[in-house]
Every structure is written in structure tokens, then in C-alpha cells.
Amino acid sequence: MNTPLPKLCGGLVLALFVLAGGDAMARTVKGVKVTDQIYMATDMSRTFLVVTPEGNVVIDTTTRDSAPRHYEVLRGMSSAPVKYILLTHAHEDHVGGVHLWKEEGTEVIAQRRFVEYMHYRERLAGFFQYRNEGQFLAPPREVKSKGNFAAEIPTTILFDDKYEFEFGGLTFKMMHTPGETWDHATVWIPELKAAFIGDNYYSSFPNIAALRGAPPRFALDYVNSIDIVLALDPELVLVAHAPPLVGTEEIQSKLGDYRDAIEYVHDATVRGLNEGKDVFTVMNEVKLPERFEIDESYGGVAWSVRGIYHGYAGWFDGEPATLLSESPDVKIRELVELAGGVDAVVRRAEELEDEGDLILSLNMADAALAMDPNHPGALAVRVSLLTELGRNEKNFNARSWIGYHRRQAAKRLAAQE
What we know:
- By secondary structure, the protein is an alpha/beta fold.
- It is 44% helix and 14% strand.
- The chain has 15 helices and 13 strands.
- The protein has helices spanning 11-19, 67-75, 92-95, 98-101, 114-123, 125-136, 219-231, 248-274, 279-285, 301-313, 329-338, 342-355, 358-371, 376-392, 396-416; strands spanning 30-33, 38-42, 46-52, 55-59, 82-86, 107-111, 157-159, 162-167, 170-176, 185-189, 194-196, 236-238, 245-246.
- A hairpin with a 6-residue loop joins β12 (236-238) and β13.
- The relative contact order is 0.09.
- The model is unreliable at 1-27 (pLDDT under 50).
């Protein structure tokens, strides 16, 4: 290693702020010389530049908002032509800058299901605008889907399981390694003992069940894909949202633990399914053993349990009422009436808040709001509760959603005054 690597503070937290177009990050884009031939621009995610005597290879291109700054930083390190752009997967924070780097004759390579994922993103453009507003503080704007198969596809070469080429004295091997997405790929450069593994490793438990909405992520895909990387015996692993892993010992230890933790949660969830337990029971029972020093600052074990559970079992919980199209609010409204009406339920919510039972209090406030969406007392309790819950929440995604709904409730409350 030639240059000390930057230590990212809450890597994914910063990452997702920029995905929302956070201007503050404009001052923090850094260009880092990782090795004599590998450079990276870093803020919320990474753009990697591999320099060869015959030209450059770019691996991933960050978001559309961040890409111009990444491009400027890395072009200052090498202005040689870009012959290849290699994409680990179709998330916006990896493909947003392709248009800046692509020159005449540049090949853009991704796994074949990249196209399917790009269409998926475009198909649900309006849905993701709402979800990105809640999770990433994205500015509200009207976004409409252009159609089922209307995404702009930047790739020129697609591969199934493997794709390999030689360029500038290096061998570039791309392998299908699904995990974070179904199209996910790893780039392996054997001469440099370097593997670029995109989002298949975080400095947090993985986001197997993405709150913003995403196709099902199969836990065993992560396990198998990490095994593929470990079998390469790399000395350098470069990822999108955390500092590189350096040295075989660190890589085998951290990636190995990451794989084992995912497999542990998967297997424990499957046991719960086979024992006939409901999803909430399993969510509360499955905990990571202390031997795994993996935090939950981005993904969460309980959410992953739910994602794995429903990924296997589907949405039906076996109860007849679930077969009907009526919202659960039907029974909630009846129970509120039986409890004495909205005001009585709000008073109970206030009592529970005073007693410190914030979760039950929030449920009571929500029950009241199911009857009267603009009840000032219920909205006031909801704002107060979400303020307190957000203050104590360590997970970025949970904190974002709590904050989003606190702001929404505060707006509705202000409109009643």
C-alpha cells in the first residue's frame, strides 16, 4: 500500500446522504492511490480507476450527483483513454456516472441480469422516489415510470457466469456473484491479487431486506459469492462503502466472519420456519452470537430474518383474515370504538409514553390515527414518540424512516393549529 487509506466515519451513513444529493459532501471527495495501478475516488461510494500502459479501466461510477467530482479527481491522476467500464451491479450509486467516463469505443461490461435490474428500477421510478425521500432525504419531486422495459441500458457487453479479457498487461476476470443484487459481479485481477466486490460486503450487517424496497435478496447467494472471493486468496479487496480490506489474514477473517454471520441468521430463520413459528417470534429470537463483531448500523438482523422468512414462505401467514383484501385498519377501528373512542386511546398512548413504553404508545397513537388521521392529540404523541425513538436509534435506515414520519406528522399537526 502506498498511501494511508481514509477511515470513513459511518461509511454507509455518509454514502446514502450523497445518494440524496447532499451538497455537504462536495467538499469531502478524496482521491486515493491504493496501489501503483489502482486509484479510487471516495465519498459515499467509490469509483475505481485501474491504470495500465494501454489505457484505463473504470470499475463502478458512483451516483449521477457525485460522478462529476469523482471524474475530476481521478482524471487529475490519469488522463489516459478509458477503454473499459466494469459494473459490479445496477444500483444507482454504481452506474450513475457511466455517461461521463464512456468515450468512443469504450466497452461497458456487466452481468446479463443487469438489464433486468435497470428495467426494474425504471418500472418503479415513482415508488422509489417516495422511498428515497423517506430513507435518503431525497428532495420531493414528481417522477413517472417510462414503462416496463424503458430503462436506458449503457452496457455493450453482457456475460452470464464469467467474462475475461487481457488489457495493459493485466487480466480482468468478471464473475457472477449475486448477493446485494441478482446481477452482482466481482472483478478479479490476479496479477494485482485484487478483488472488487461491490456491495457484497459492508462495515455493517448486510441489508438483506432493504427498507427502501428491492427484489428479494437470497442469503445463501451472499454465502456462496463470498466463498468464491475467498477461494481466490486475494490480498486486496475493494468495496463500495467501506475501506479496502488489506492482507490475506484480514480478508479471510473479516469476509469469513461476514459469510458465517449471514449463514447463521439464515439457518436460524429456516429452523424457525420449520418449527412452525410466526415471523415476529423468529425476528425476536434470532440474535447474532457475540463472536461476530458486526454492527447493525445499516442492515439489521431482525429485518433480514423477516426478509429471509418471507422470501421462503411468501406473504400469506396462514390466517383466513389475511386472504381478504380488507386492511387491518378495519379491526383496529372497531377496537378503538370498543376502547371508548379516539380520545380514550390517545390518553392511553400518553400514559404509556410517560411510563416509557414507547413502542406500545406508538401503536396506540397509530390506532387512534387509523380512526382520525388528523387528530391533534394523536399527532402530537406520534411526533413526540418519533423524536425520542429517532434520538436513540443507531441504525441509519431506521433513523431515516423515523425522521421522515416525524416530519410528516409534524406537518399534519401544524395544519390543525
